[in-house]
Amino acid sequence: LIMKKDKVLYKEFIKDCVKIIKDKKIKILHASYLTDAFFFLKLKTVTDTKLISSVRGYDLYSKNLDFSKVFEEGDLFLVRSKVMMFDLIERGCPKDKIKIHHSGINTDFFSYKKRDFSKNEEIRFISIGRLVPKKGMIYTLKAFYLFNKKYPNSFLTIIGEGKEKNKLMDFISKNNLKRKVKLEDRLSNNNIKKVLHKNHIFILHSITGENNDSEGIPVVLMEAMSTGMPVISTSHKGINELIEKNVSGYMVREKDVEELFEKMEYVYGNTNIWEKVGLFAREKIKRDFNINIQN
User: Fold this and answer.
1) What pLDDT digit, counting tens, does each position of 204-263 carry?
2) Where are the domains of the chain?
3) Rounded to the nearest 10 degrees, how much is the dihedral formed by the CA atoms of 129, 117, 266, 231?
4) I want to staple 162 with a disulfide (CB 3.0 to 4.6 A). Which of 83, 130, 187, 224 is the partner?
5) Rounded CA gap, 141 and 258, in Å?
6) Phi and psi at residue 243, in whole multiples of 5°?
7) What gap in Å lies between CA 22 and CA 78, rounded to an integer?
8) Cα 140 vs. chain centroid, distance in angstroms?
9) pLDDT band at 1, cuts 50/70/90?
């Protein structure tokens, strides 16, 4: 934004950054997103530094940019999944510059809670994520609509903000779901843990969105799994590395509302396996996606 508005100011900003790097004897620069690496390359060329770039998903998949110079001059690229590593190689990044570095969560904070459920109580589903196409919230809503018709004693909470909110609200209104679905704005981590503990089954129907926008490995799925709740997601990008199908969670095809409904019905009807699946899920997160190990 600085560069677009004022090139003179941008040059001064670069000079200030270079001075800080030299004064502080900084040796490593870190671009939090692949798209940020273009800026950091300017600093790298005039300082004695190495450049590490994190690749998260949106920056790689939804941006139709030429990263060839970044791949050539950057020193290390940290990707979230094996799928992302192969996608980065396909875009021209040398394999020896790529390392898989999973995101991690605080598994002590997102603590385990055994889900108890009896058939005479309300079954509570929850989905958390930005209300954008790649989170597939409209497919979650459509599947819940089918589920609620067959099992009226059910409730869905969707937490998030984004451009698809009105679309979701229209679907809720047209299908008389106002008493069965609750849309909540973004919550703090403390409140996310509380709502995860309060609900029975977590759904994240990730899909390939606009402009090929795709997931890395969604952190909120890790958080739900860490609490030991059954999760249902899709066979999408790095999610296959997070969920072992039918062992630590369940996966369906992208945009397949009928299959999602059937999986919701299956998990609802087999409460006897919730604890086993939940414990497998928590152990997976503690072993492979634990922030205290990752960092």
Assistant:
1) 999 988 777 788 889 999 999 999 999 999 999 889 999 999 999 999 999 999 999 999
2) 2-100, 123-292
3) 30
4) 130
5) 12
6) -105, 125
7) 25
8) 16
9) low
Contacts of residue 211, defined as CB under 8 A and 6 or more positions apart, other chains included, come to: 61, 62, 63, 64
CA gap 146, 116 in Å, rounded: 24
Please tell me the predicted confidence (pLDDT) of residue 187. Answer: 84
pTM: 0.86
pLDDT in tens, 99-114: 999 889 999 999 999 9
Pick one of 3.40.50.2000, 3.80.30.20, 2.115.10.20, 3.40.50.970 as the CATH number of 123-292: 3.40.50.2000
d(CA 103, CA 289): 6
User: Are the beta carbons of 26 and 20 closer than 8 angstroms?
Assistant: yes
Would you give the distance in Å from CA 199 to the centre of its chain? 19
Q: Which residues contact 162 (CB under 8 A, 6 or more apart)?
A: 130, 131, 132, 135
Strands of 123-128's sheet in order across: 181-184, 154-159, 123-128, 201-203, 231-234, 250-252
Give the pLDDT mean for 147-176: 97
What whole-number distance in Å separates Cα of residue 263 and Cα of residue 21? 53
User: For 186, phi and psi rounded to 5 degrees?
Assistant: -55, 140
Which tokens hold the place of 122? 């309300």
C-alpha to C-alpha distance for 116 and 187, rounded to whole angstroms: 25
CA distance 221 to 231: 8
* Higher-pLDDT residue of 190, 96: 96
- Which is the CATH superfamily of the domain at 2-100? Glycogen Phosphorylase B; (3.40.50.2000)
